[in-house]
Design brief:
Layout: E1 2-6, H1 12-19, E2 24-28, H2 32-39, H3 50-55, E3 60-62, E4 73-76, H4 91-103, E5 109-112, H5 120-133, E6 142-145, E7 164-168, H6 171-182, E8 189-191, H7 195-225, H8 230-237, H9 259-269, H10 275-285, H11 287-302, E9 311-315, H12 331-340, E10 344-348, H13 354-361, E11 375-378, H14 383-388, H15 391-394, E12 399-400
Parallel strand pairs: 1-2, 1-4, 2-3, 4-5, 5-6, 7-8, 9-10, 9-11, 11-12
Antiparallel strand pairs: 6-7
Helix pairs in contact: 4-5, 7-9, 7-10, 11-12
The structure holds nicotinamide-adenine-dinucleotide.
Length: 402
């Protein structure tokens, strides 16, 4: 079975590598630089070492779509971002569907792994596959959905160890998709009764996390005003057996802060305004500014109100600890707020791609912290950064986190 993985990012690369142990795999990505780097054994997402990439028997990694032509299964792992007004941006999904449509044959299988709203696979993607290929879904080719649940940066839960939800409408489609994933997922598969259920389940997993963190963030905002340490409150409350151990923090990235909008958008399309989901999003969006305000207040207290030109170090720029991904990072809000207050701000993150940060955020990361600083913001405390930091950091008296 020759399988194409379409989109070789955080989700597609590990999948292509795992599948290549059992199938012939074509890794396809439109990003030429990513393709060149992967062929050289370089993974800019920092998920795999050069030896791991070179050791995976992926038959070809390419940006030439012609190499998709004799594949019999296509798995789509392209981005699903939102636009500025929080509307789902399906452009990558639809473009990938059009590419696959060119090579789709009878009896082939197309599986979407990208996170979407319920209905997207059948109502938005399948029509593109049908239009371009001239074939009919569930009659000529099989359509499936299997959400990805990996957690980049967390080496303790590799792809194969996470149970995989799968769904397809026809029994032939279900048998095929089951065969593909059961071959690689040691944790097994869960057959959802429909593609819509599988799509909704994934969106809900991330929306639940977003809402739970938003409650913690609301507590952080409230208790800060009451001059009570929220972490001490959570520690005390956590001694009850059924108190959920969520923590306040910055919610950025491509998933937790984005997927709830997919669900909310779909809900609003059918006439329901999801108040809990949307208010959770609203709270989480404020936290970068809150963190900056906390630092500004602490500096004002330390220096008697005069904080202009004080030097502040922000530790971490990625959207979460131990990860190189900077998409939708909320640290940029912390940075802008501190600069706006007249502070001199250095941002240090040894994990992320400094060139990319410069292009995408107009921000030059500092190569090495230049102590002394008047205050340190622990924005995204990567493990390696904390371990490598010198005593100037460890003994610093003004370290601020949410
Ligand atoms: N990153 C995560 O933690 C994670 C976890 C679970 C699910 N997801 C979901 O998986 C999907 C992919 O996310 P990601 O983090 O891997 O994104 P990513 O940006 O890391 O990778 C996507 C890749 O797709 C490529 N691409 C874009 N359009 C393409 C096209 N038309 N044809 C071929 N390649 C194309 C891009 O160049 C990129 O390399 C999203 O829907 C996301 O929500 C992500």
């Amino acid at each position: 079975m020759k399988i194409a993985v379409v989109g070789l990012g955080y989700v597609g690369l590990p999948l292509a590598m795992a599948l290549s142990q059992k199938f012939t795999v074509v890794g396809y990505d439109i990003d030429e630089q990513r393709v060149v780097e992967l062929n050289e054994g370089l993974d800019s997402t920092n998920e795999f070492s050069s030896a791991e990439i070179k050791g995976a028997p992926i038959s070809v990694i390419t940006n030439d779509d012609k190499l998709l032509q004799d594949c019999v299964a296509f798995i789509v792992t392209v981005p699903t971002p939102i636009t500025k007004d929080n509307t789902p941006d399906l452009s990558y999904l639809l473009a990938a569907s059009a590419t696959i449509g060119k090579y789709l044959k009878r009896e082939d299988l197309v599986v979407y792994e990208s996170t979407v709203y319920p209905g997207c696979t059948e109502e938005d993607c399948a029509p593109v596959l049908e239009r371009v290929s001239g074939l009919q879904t569930d009659k000529d080719f099989y359509l499936g959905y299997s959400p990805e649940r990996i957690n980049p940066g967390d080496k303790s839960k590799p792809l194969v160890s996470i149970q995989k939800i799968i769904a397809s409408k026809t029994s032939e489609g279900r048998a095929l998709i089951k065969h593909v994933y059961e071959s690689i997922i040691t944790a097994g598969v869960y057959e959802a009764p429909s593609i819509k259920v599988a799509e909704a389940a994934k969106a809900v997993e991330n929306a639940q996390r977003d809402i739970n963190i938003s409650f913690m963030n609301e507590l952080a905002l409230m208790f800060y005003k009451m001059n009570i340490d929220v972490h001490e409150v959570l520690k005390a409350a956590g001694t009850k057996w059924n108190f959920l151990p969520f923590k306040p923090g910055l919610v950025g990235g491509h998933c937790i802060g984005v997927d709830p909008h997919y669900l909310a958008w779909k809900a609003m399309q059918v006439g329901y305004i999801p108040k809990v989901i949307l208010s959770g999003r609203e709270v989480n969006e404020q936290m970068g500014i809150f963190l900056a305000e906390k630092m500004i207040a602490a500096l004002a207290q330390k220096f008697g109100g005069e904080i202009k030109a004080k030097r502040v170090l922000i530790l971490g720029f990625a959207f979460k600890p131990n990860c190189a991904d900077t998409r939708n990072t909320k640290v940029i809000d912390v940075y802008h707020s501190l600069v706006k207050a007249g502070l001199l701000v250095d941002v240090y993150d040894p994990l992320v791609d400094a060139k990319k940060v410069s292009v995408e955020f107009g921000l030059q990361l500092t190569v090495q912290p230049l102590y002394p600083y008047d205050g340190i913001v622990l924005a995204v405390p990567h493990q390696i950064m904390l371990e490598a930091e010198d005593s100037a950091f460890a003994s610093h008296e003004l370290k601020i986190s949410i």
